[in-house]
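Note to self: the last two entries modelled the partners one at a time, which told us nothing about the interface. This time every component goes in together.
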Amino acid sequence: MTTRWLTPEEQRAWRAYIAASLLLEDAIDRQLQQDAGMPHLYYSILSVLSESPERRLRMTDLAERLKITRSRLTYAVTRLEKDGMVRREACRHDKRGSIAALTDDGFAVLDRAAPGHVETVRSFLFDRLSKEQVGQLEEISTAIAQGLQEDGTRPASDDVPWRRRSSTACS
Amino acid sequence: MTTRWLTPEEQRAWRAYIAASLLLEDAIDRQLQQDAGMPHLYYSILSVLSESPERRLRMTDLAERLKITRSRLTYAVTRLEKDGMVRREACRHDKRGSIAALTDDGFAVLDRAAPGHVETVRSFLFDRLSKEQVGQLEEISTAIAQGLQEDGTRPASDDVPWRRRSSTACS
DNA sequence: TAGGTTTGTTTCAAACTTGAACCAAGCCTT
DNA sequence: AAGGCTTGGTTCAAGTTTGAAACAAACCTA
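The predicted structure of the combined assembly is written out below.
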């Protein structure tokens, strides 16, 4: 079967997307490294934990939410634990399980860093987009993410499904 | 000044975007690692070189095109050179300069890998989007990238204009 | 209920990235 | 034409990511 090459429009979109995502992640990483001493992913871990029931989550659930591998998460949490932002706890119901819990220190750091982070996201992303574009971005992103999660996904965990709670920090 | 927190719409868009970009880069990296033995960035280096005059480009120009640091590029090119995909050449006009040139082997690898790569991009991205959405994605991405490049607040420095003069691949 | 499979997590080595420090060559200015 | 700044590129150490392998606990199923 012959390759369906990208059309010029697709090629432009693809290149623009690659450039934008690289630059944006870079800018955000730099800002957070500067102001919170950690890269974006690590901040996101704190953020997700802060919004979870009792500010704690099982490793697998956390990895699933963040769309990263368990291995990567293990490394990150180990660092965050060393820094006192997170504490590991045993899981009563399942002795294999490990739970990551946000410490008060971790929460404080998150709290302090959140405004700067939001400001960065805003100034580099949302300030550049119209209201319609924000909607479009969500739809596009959702479509892509959905497609990518359809088949190879990990088994769904039994407890703690998606639950929204109010919080100041965005991941 | 009080923080301008993200609206619910913005928060949804931001989270969807983060998830999508992580998953997409991941999928593409995995496919290319599998089929071409290199991550996406490395493939992109070959790709950019292949489209450049005489299939060669100065390191700085290459880094600029790819939106990555010189340091990162140096490492990548060193690996690619070790693998015989790229050759470093001296620059006549500027003895500081170093030129990365795509080898025939490198071109061959690119050629073999391209169809699979395009198919992956297509199936995970463009097959999920309408024609309008492709256009929207380009506009959104361009807006973001532009903002990030024009903004002087980025590379650790003070005065260097982000836009660099490009030197034609000399020689 | 023993044995095999699956699931949750960590470990390990190799690969990659980061940012600052460095070096050499070009570009002033005087 | 010397001193001093800037630019192009690499190097180095520390940090991060990857993927496969290792482990242990839970879950079958005969």
